[in-house]
Amino acid sequence: MAAAAALPLLLVGSPAPAQAQDSPRCHSTGTDEAVESPIEIDRSAACPGNRSTLSIHYPHSVDGTVLFQDKPPLGGRPSEHDDVRFVIASQGPQPYITFNGERYNLSNVHFHGHAEHKFAGQPFAPLEAHLVHERATLPKAYVVFSVLLDAKTLSEPSQHDRLIASPPVLGASKDVYHINLNALLPASHSTYRYTGSLTTPDENGDYFKPVNWVVFDHRAQAGQKNVQAYRSLWDSAGNHRELQVSVPAPKVYAYR
Ligand SMILES: [Zn+2]
């Protein structure tokens, strides 16, 4: 592949404007401790963001492998914890972010159908992409970008389409080239952030915490046929975790 220059994208969120401070529920309830994920996000109850700094350093283009990950029980029809994921090749410039001054490397991009996170007053999106970043130093911690996807009739395939279209069979993989990671994100980098957990369990059945969730306010797009084909890999239960309700509820912070 052509040499891909690392183009740091500095942005993603200055604190939300002052009107968000009027939210009556922002200061009175809620916790910053890690809760179970996913959650429903009430935009009207979000606090103005002032706690975290984020910058994205994705190369212009990356190569890698799309894997239809088969977790136990192996084989047969895909289980709820299986997913199609893109793992970036270890050669070449590595995508990473800095979050609160610490480096997190992009480990994989994978998809859930229907979506896991939900905005209050809106139906579930048909698909949700997770861009999983793992802290470069121990102890283990994650920053996961959540991008909700709409299913659209597109004149040309999106970068999401390139990752979900024609997946390999369960347990197999295929190489993909020249994926533009920045194009997986919505044009607007407005986000909602809270501290939660992974939404798939480890081998012991535990849902790892803490995960710094960065849920994009706007949706990205994938082709209708590809979304339907992805969803049809599972039965009606799909490959998503149900919404989790925690008491106290997590504090959610808005960054515009
Ligand atoms: Zn996920």
UniProtKB/TrEMBL annotation:
Name by which UniProt lists this protein: carbonic anhydrase
Similarity comment: family membership: Belongs to the alpha-carbonic anhydrase family.
Keyword set, alphabetical order: Lyase, Metal-binding, Signal, Zinc
Cleaved signal peptide residues: 1-20
Residue intervals of the Alpha-carbonic anhydrase domain: 14-256
Enzyme Commission code(s) on record: 4.2.1.1
Annotated SMART domains: Carb_anhydrase
Swiss-Prot/TrEMBL catalytic activity: hydrogencarbonate + H(+) = CO2 + H2O
Xref: Pfam families: Carb_anhydrase
SUPFAM superfamilies documented for this protein: Carbonic anhydrase (SSF51069)
Record has Lyase as a keyword: yes
PROSITE patterns: ALPHA_CA_2 (PS51144)
Enzyme class label: lyase
Listed Gene3D superfamilies: Alpha carbonic anhydrase
Record organism: Streptosporangium subroseum
GO molecular function: carbonate dehydratase activity; zinc ion binding
Lineage: Bacteria, Bacillati, Actinomycetota, Actinomycetes, Streptosporangiales
